[in-house]
Amino acid sequence: MKTKTATRACEACAFWNPIEDSHGECRRHAPQTVAFEVDEEMKFESMFPVTANDDWCGDFEKDD
Fold this sequence. Notes:
By secondary structure, the chain is mostly beta strands.
């Protein structure tokens, strides 16, 4: 029997873009800017959140 979260997992969502077997990008919203330090310099990059295929959230919309 499937649970509610299993049927609403990221891999079944219209906004999920797979990038590996078990991980992908959530494309529900615009990419977010992430700041990180490299060699004492601040770097900025825009990216979509990466999620596991069995993660889930309240923004789920079934992929047709």
